[in-house]
Design goal:
six-stranded mixed sheet; D-Maltodextrin-Binding Protein, domain 2; four-stranded mixed sheet; 41% helix; disordered N terminus; alpha+beta; 510 residues
Length: 510
């Protein structure tokens, strides 16, 4: 797919600006009143480089897009880059030095981004954040997690802190078998056994399995939630006596591998997990072939809706928590950051402030709802205060993952992962309750955002070696004793040790 650039015609923009002139004050400190407009009331032109998640870029005639520009009094020249080429094109664009005024980088801590920020290529936005009400309303953790060496060089794309990876379980299958919702990993293992051997769907056939998931070449993929529960922390490090220790060296990591190894040997884990794709794992779960899948909360209705085409009583239930080895309830907390928008230092300060005002308005409830839900009556109806998507919303790619406008315009909503297009209110409310339960116990990644220069170069190769060994242990190609030997050598490895030292140095500075 080729990159597409979108802009409204001059005539359209003049019409939009005239409509807004009466109510636009041009004040940078009040972004809900035409903050992006210049002193004359003319639209502020902004060049934007961003991700294209859907198959097609936003049509210039898209009425929602036009309405957003009218409300923000802007002329947006957007370069949409398909997500499968985004990383490559971003690197080339940054290296060229010809950087659009508002540029999305998907990885805040990419080595190129970090080096450019440190060398002064981007505006340090830290002193300005407090001047914008929607920025100021974001949880401080999001701004902190988007910092590079203690400073915010970009506007984070906000994501909920809660509702990330965990286990979805077929609640209807639990009910069919008279099983309670599992709380411990031992409980869950018994559920896997029952889902595999006790005909949970009642069709009289032995055609179901307990757990589906896949691994990647350098990570545990959608089976990674098993590790996080045993390690009781998301990410690769945990605090032990004030020091960040790689979880791969911890006894809890060995326990996670032992649990998965047993699941593989006893055939309650899909046998082809090393070669499955994520989409195939989801298909097996949605096709009522497997009863447990690791994923975030938000696809709950996507799964349940698909399952109910096979079984009208189907119910994909995101577990609020699972207990790790210590017996504490565990759920992981996200960073709240999904990339960020940088403003190059070539942009004058006055223009930079107008861009900040525009983005502050982009994160408002009004603009976020417009981008995410479309127009009332056309794209959604309201029942009991709950927005219900129409069929037209599906046709226009509103309120789903292919909505490209959400790559820029998205309000922060702690319950965003409770929602999915078409979800009934009862499931939305249940998901919100699960998010509240997780919020009370969730644990953040203590090493998020910490940079090791050695890891930037040597880390990828080390991660692949570690993951290769994990996969072999789970499949029985290597023993747990061999894992012990592997981790002992890893602990003594000079490169691995240096990475750990650098991570701890960065942690102390943070």
């Amino acid at each position: 797919m080729k990159t597409k650039t979108i802009a409204l015609s001059a005539a359209s923009l003049l019409a939009l600006s005239s409509l807004l002139a009466a109510c636009s004050s041009g004040s940078e400190g009040n972004p809900d009143n035409g903050a992006a407009a210049d002193a004359s009331g003319a639209p502020t032109e902004i060049s934007i480089f961003t991700n294209q998640q859907g198959a097609q870029a936003v049509d210039p005639a898209n009425p929602i897009f036009q309405e957003i520009m009218k409300k923000t009094n802007t002329k947006l020249n957007i370069t949409w880059v398909p997500f499968n080429t985004l990383t490559e094109k971003t690197k080339v664009m940054l290296a060229s030095g010809d950087i659009p005024e508002l540029t999305y980088v998907s990885n805040v801590f990419d080595s190129q981004v970090v080096q450019m920020a440190a060398s002064g290529a981007f505006w340090d936005l830290t002193p300005y954040i407090k001047d914008y009400k929607n920025f100021s309303a974001l949880p401080q953790a999001i701004w902190d997690n988007a910092k590079i060496q203690g400073k915010n060089y970009g506007i984070p794309r906000p994501r909920p802190l809660e509702g990330s990876w965990g286990a979805h379980v077929r609640k209807d299958w639990l009910d069919n078998l008279g099983l309670p919702v599992p709380e411990t990993m031992d409980d869950l293992y018994q559920v896997l056994q029952a889902f595999t051997h006790k005909d949970p769907d009642g069709n009289g056939k032995a055609d179901t399995i307990g757990l589906v998931g896949e691994v990647a070449s350098d990570s545990m993929g959608s089976l990674g939630w098993v590790e996080t529960v045993f390690n009781e922390v998301p990410g690769s490090y945990k605090l032990v006596n004030g020091q960040l220790t790689p979880v791969v060296l911890e006894p809890s990591e060995r326990q996670a591998l032992e649990w998965l190894k047993k699941a593989y040997e006893e055939k309650v884990l899909v046998p082809d997990f090393p070669v499955l794709k994520n989409s195939q794992s989801r298909e097996q779960y949605m096709g009522s072939k497997a009863g447990v899948l690791g994923v975030a909360i938000n696809p709950q209705w996507l799964f349940t809706d698909a399952i109910r085409k096979i079984d009208p009583k189907g119910d994909s239930y995101p577990l609020p928590y699972l207990m790790g080895p210590s017996g504490r309830k565990f759920a992981g907390r996200d960073s709240g950051v999904f990339g960020m928008y940088v403003i190059p230092k070539t942009v004058p300060e006055a223009k930079m402030k107008k861009i900040l005002a525009f983005m502050d308005q982009a994160y408002s409830e009004e603009i976020g709802d417009l981008a995410g839900f479309g127009f009332p009556d056309k794209h959604y109806t309201v029942k009991d205060g709950f927005k219900i998507a129409t069929e037209q919303a599906k046709t226009d790619n509103v309120a789903d993952t292919t909505n490209n406008l959400l790559q820029i315009f998205q309000k922060y909503d702690k319950y965003a992962r409770a929602y999915y297009n078409g979800i009934p209110k009862e499931f939305y409310d249940r998901n919100k309750k699960i998010i509240d339960e997780r919020e009370a116990i969730s644990v953040p990644d203590p090493a998020y955002g910490l940079i090791s220069q050695t890891a930037l170069t040597a880390g990828p190769d080390l991660n692949k070696k570690i993951q290769d060994m994990k996969t072999k242990v789970i499949m029985g190609k290597e023993s747990l004793a061999a894992w012990d030997e592997f981790t002992a050598k890893l602990k003594a490895d000079a490169t691995f040790t240096k990475i750990t030292q650098e991570i701890n140095e960065a942690y102390k500075k943070k």
